[in-house]
Design goal:
227 residues; mainly alpha; Arc Repressor Mutant, subunit A; Tetracycline Repressor, domain 2; 2 domains; elongated
Length: 227
């Protein structure tokens, strides 16, 4: 009886492993195809061909093409966040300028990394340009946490003396500049995390944040800290 139970458990685990491997192959292929063609032009047939799967596998594991698309975005977004956290491993005693520099580097690396999971950047860009029903989920799960983190850094740069309107204004200004840089980066095949142009752009942000803080230091010191 014990041998029968062990055999049953072994078979169940083997089946679970097979299912997990197939889902992984479908997510890999979906990330690549959706990044290349966008949601509307991507086909389930092409995704399954690249995954080496039967067309029915998408319906079996993900129900439909739209849900596969949502899961692919979430999957690659999670991997990208793990690879490039917003603090990039800074220590607890890092300055606000260092935190801003790390935040911007992290964001640019996520979007401009052309290696796996570099499709994440292409997926994000395509979703913003050609929005689908997944856009709301993308904003809430990927972009809002980033924007909130940027607001925290701006408050620290302001020494706790910025009101919420000023925090939003400064955050949006920084966010816009980062978006412009990512647009330039996606248009250039030479932009990678290791190019000198990328490093010059990133290093320029240190001077920008210090100038930002210095220009307002006298103004901020004359104001009480906000609560």
């Amino acid at each position: 009886m014990l041998n029968v139970r062990l055999k049953y458990a072994f078979n169940m685990k083997a089946k679970a492993d097979i299912h997990a491997q197939m889902m992984q192959k479908l997510l890999d292929a979906a990330g690549e195809v959706f990044a290349e063609r966008g949601f509307a032009r991507a086909t389930v047939r092409e995704i399954c061909e690249r995954a080496g799967a039967n067309i029915a596998a998408v319906n079996y594991y993900f129900h439909d093409k739209e849900n596969l698309y949502r899961e692919a975005i979430k999957y690659w977004s999670d991997i990208s966040q793990e690879k490039y956290p917003t603090d990039l491993g800074l220590g607890p005693n890092s300055t606000a300028e260092e935190k801003l520099h790390a935040f911007i580097r992290s964001f640019l690396f996520r979007i401009l990394d052309k290696n796996r999971p570099g499709w994440h950047g292409q997926l994000m860009t395509r979703e913003m340009v050609e929005p689908t029903g997944a856009l709301d989920d993308l904003i809430e799960t990927a972009y809002r946490p980033l924007y909130d983190r940027l607001g925290q850094i701006v408050r620290e740069l302001g020494g706790g003396r910025l009101d919420e309107f000023e925090v939003r204004l400064c955050s949006r200004s920084i966010w816009l500049r980062v978006c412009i840089i990512t647009t330039r980066g996606r248009q250039s095949a030479s932009w990678t995390p290791k190019t000198s142009l990328m490093h010059r752009t990133l290093n320029g942000w240190r001077g920008t944040s210090r100038a930002f803080r210095s220009a307002h230091s006298e103004h901020w010191r004359s104001r009480p800290a906000t609560r």
